[in-house]
Structures are given as C-alpha cells and as structure tokens.
C-alpha cells in the first residue's frame, strides 16, 4: 500500500474495514480464537491500540495517530503474509473470558471443554466443591488446568505434558493466576511419571488429528507444535493409551472428559465396546465425550 493510501485510513472503523478486506482477500484460515474475518480484524486492531477488547463502539470513529495506524497495519500484514495465528502475533489467547499467554511452543487454546467447566461439569459432577483431585492430561499452555482449578475451588490439580517447552508456557500462566499452591505441573509421557493418585475429574485434549487431515492442514496450523496435533493414522494413537490407563487413575465416581475433534467415526471404530456420553456445547457437536471409571473398566 502506498503512503498516500495508508493515510486515508484515519479511524478505527477504517482500519477494521481494511483488515476485513485483507483477511477475506487472502482467504486466511481462521479457528484460533476467531471464526470470521470481522472478529479477527477487530481483535488485531484493538490489541494494537491497547484498547479494551470488549469495548469497540465508543472508539469506532476515533481518529488514530500515524504511529498507531502503522502498528495496526503491521499486525494485519503479518497475519496475512506469514499466515501466523493471531494469538502468536499478540502472545495472548482468550478462552471463556480468561487471558492466557501463548507462543509457538504450545497450540492456541480453543478447547470446547472450557465451556463445560463454566458450570463445573454439571450434572456429571454433582458438587464442584467436593472435587478433591483434577488431572489435565496434555495440558499445553495450562489453560484447561487453570480453568479446572477455578471451576473446582477445593481441588488439587495436576497438569501433564511431555514437552518441557509447553510446561514453561504453562508455568507462566499458572503464576499469572496465582495458582502455584494448588496446581502442579508434571513432565511425563502421559501417565508414566505421575504420582499414584485417584482423580475425581480427568480432562484431556490430546493430539487426535488423523494423518490424512494432518496432510491437509491450512498453513496457520503448521505454526503450531505438530506433537500436540498429530494422533497417528486414525488419530487414536494416544487416545488408546489414555483410555487403557485411565481406570487406574480415576476415583470410584470419577469421570474422564475427552476431546477428539472431528474424529468421532474413528473413535467409534477404535472403541466399539464403549458407549460414552457425547457432550455438545454452543461451539462443538460430536467433539467431546464423557466416560466413567465403570465404563472404562
């Protein structure tokens, strides 16, 4: 864009409109916090201008300084040309109103399990205050472990990841939320290095993308750690190991909440003997399931 054209973008409304046009023209892949170009452009603009993300209307027709305009345009340009998820450009992701630090060492938080934690997994968990131990397997940034600690305020939470880089990011988020006394991070290949403990709730968003889908991922997803995405030929490699071990770590009334994305057909083919409860949210259908210890035994 030539300097004269840049100068014509004078207000937030101008910058957001321009951002939507650029994102649509470039056909960027969304799904890392926004599912449409408008929300993505609004987020990048407000973030660049250090404005509250939930307060757009009073500022829409405010004029911007030249240096502010350049910050916004730089973010939009990087989003389009580098195909990097917005969360990596801003080093933050929002999940159910909670902010988490992120960088390319972890996948961008977006699990629909977070919505279920808003209500403490009701009705599958009758009393959130009675939950004593929670496990978040494949924790990544630690977002679900933190939301689990907030949903179950009397629980001790263990969060597990095989990646030391991911655990560095998770530690930063745990410290940001002041949860170090209740939330312990473990570097472990699934359950291998966990203490002997029974959990009332196990949360798990494992790598589950099947190999065919991995080969077809949009460029944005290739910036994420492939270790956190790839689940083998049918996406169920780690799921098999998790379901085999889980009964030994669940309390008698414990529940496992598992995310499998768009792999329901592969899940049902791999585990025809299981009859999980499929949990729908506002954003996801046929992507989350719940199993009890009794079912897994």
Folded structure, characterized:
The structure is a single chain. This protein is of the alpha/beta class. It is built from 13 helices and nine strands. It has helices spanning 3-7, 12-26, 37-48, 66-81, 86-90, 113-117, 143-151, 164-176, 211-215, 219-222, 237-245, 264-270, 293-296, and strands at 93-95, 98-100, 133-137, 156-161, 183-187, 199-204, 250-259, 277-278, 288-292. The strands form two sheets. It has a seven-stranded mixed beta sheet. The protein has a two-stranded antiparallel ribbon with strand order 1-2. Strand 4 (156-161), helix 8 (164-176) and strand 5 (183-187) form a beta-alpha-beta unit. Helix 2 (12-26) crosses helix 3, helix 2 (12-26) packs parallel to helix 4 (66-81) and helix 3 packs across helix 4. It is elongated and about 70 Å long. The mean pLDDT is 96.
Largest sheet: 7 strands, mixed
Report how far apart the termini are. Answer: 62 Å
- What is the assembly state of the chains in this entry? single chain
Shape: elongated
Q: Strands across the major sheet, in which order?
A: 5-4-3-6-7-9-8
Order of helices and strands: HHHHHEEHEHEHEEHHHEHEEH
Helix % is 25-40%
Strand content: 15-25%
Class based on secondary structure composition and strand pairing: alpha/beta
What is the count of helical runs?
Answer: 13
What integer value in Å does the Rg equal? Answer: 21 Å
Query: Quick one: how many beta strands?
Result: 9
Low-confidence spans = none
Mean pLDDT: 96
């Amino acid at each position: 864009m030539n300097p004269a054209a840049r100068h014509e973008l004078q207000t937030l409304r101008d910058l957001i409109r321009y951002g939507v046009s650029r994102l649509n023209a470039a056909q960027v892949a969304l799904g890392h916090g926004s599912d449409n170009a408008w929300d993505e452009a609004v987020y990048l603009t407000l973030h660049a201008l250090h404005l509250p993300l939930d307060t757009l209307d009073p500022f829409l027709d405010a004029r911007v300084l030249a240096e502010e305009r350049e910050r916004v345009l730089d973010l939009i340009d990087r989003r389009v040309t580098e195909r990097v998820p917005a969360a990596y450009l801003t080093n933050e992701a929002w999940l159910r109103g909670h902010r988490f630090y992120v960088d390319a060492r972890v996948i961008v938080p977006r699990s629909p399990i977070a919505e279920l934690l808003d209500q403490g997994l009701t009705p599958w968990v009758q009393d959130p205050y009675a939950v004593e131990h929670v496990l978040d397997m494949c924790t990544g940034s630690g977002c679900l472990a933190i939301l689990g600690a907030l949903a179950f305020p009397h629980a001790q939470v263990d969060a597990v990841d095989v990646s030391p880089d991911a655990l560095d990011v998770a530690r930063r988020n745990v410290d940001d939320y002041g949860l170090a006394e209740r939330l312990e991070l473990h570097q472990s290949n699934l359950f291998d290095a966990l203490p002997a403990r029974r959990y009332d709730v196990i949360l798990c968003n494992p790598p589950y993308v099947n190999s065919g889908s991995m080969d077809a991922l949009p460029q944005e997803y290739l910036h994420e750690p492939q270790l956190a995405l790839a689940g083998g030929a049918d996406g169920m490699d780690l799921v098999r190991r998790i379901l085999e071990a889980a009964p030994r770590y669940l309390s008698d009334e414990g529940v496992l909440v598992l995310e499998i994305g768009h792999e329901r057909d592969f899940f049902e083919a791999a585990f025809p003997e299981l009859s999980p409860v499929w949990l729908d949210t506002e954003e996801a259908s046929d992507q989350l399931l719940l199993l009890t210890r009794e079912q897994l035994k």
